[in-house]
Fold this protein.
Amino acid sequence: MRTLRSAGLALDSLTIFRRLLKDPVLSRFSALLHSSPEDPRSFIRDYSEFVAALYAVTDNFGDYLQKVVLEDENTYVLRAAAGRPIPEAIQNSLDRELSILRDLSRLTSSEVKAVCPEASGLSDWTNTVSDLPAVYAERMAALPTKGYGVFSRYHVFSLNDRGDLEPVLYPDPQRLSELTGYETERAKILANTEALLSGLPASNTLLYGDAGTGKSSTVKAIVNEYRERGLRLIEVKKNQLYRIPGLMNALSSNPLKFILFIDDLSFSANDDDFSALKAILEGNVNSRGQNLVIYATSNRRHLVKETLQDREGDDIHFFDTIQELMSLSARFGLTVTFSRPEKELYLKIVEALASQYDIRTDKEQLGIRAEAHALRNGGRSPRTARQFIELLKAGV
């Protein structure tokens, strides 16, 4: 770049990457490039505001610019992700803009300060030199595992009240290696998830069983395990089930794989959400895409809270009523049962957790105290075991 002004004009000309001009760092960088060195006060102010914004994230401008370029959700990447042809005009624009951004990423603080003698003592930033067009081409080839936009930065999401996706900034870090017991149960879910990631038919799955047996932890650990292979999780609350068809449509052309996760699912017999989920699982006019499955956990085998009246009610077609109540769970292609552990498995889980938490104590005494804790707290379960070990670690 011959001058800061020409660099600023080049940045202003972006079309494919137009959204980057609203980035909090790049918007200040643009203001700096257009700042006049003949007005030292304004120039120093614009320079310092840019560096302050950059420092809030990193001190390396080259790395920062490459990151926001690779994560940008733009016309080109949306076409590429959906497998749509790229018009020549769009391809030419992309190539031109990547060259512009590459050159900008190499602009050093020394070069910028040199145009204004009064700025010579200001803070510096660093640069990592990279071939941005080549790096971008590599990212496009890796879209099925790396993703784009917000999906390239985060792997766990929730739905807000408007139905928009929001990233979970600090998801549960649970790993499969930290889970003890239930290997047979988890193997079924892992095999189903592997099928999803491989593009093979995968089943909607119901994880059913006693409270605290690790159903939710299993799903979260699987997503953490397969994040680098392109797996993402979206948590959907029961009162948001009606949004699932729209979510399926929005994700249908995304090259990543998704688990729609419904935790602690249950219904009353006259719950409107019951019919909504039943239709989604059975399939309506919107068929489920090959990149998405529903995983749900529940403490109830048939998901619907039944009363004696449901069993003995005055419905003339009694058998049809019962079948209706049981029909929802039958629509999950895979049901995996997590039962409360027997004493041997419970103590095995306690010992494994004690090792993870670096608790060294007599094995027999550990078992006695763990059993006593379980008796006081609702019985044996992996959750009870973890609570006991955490209390022990805290010295309680």
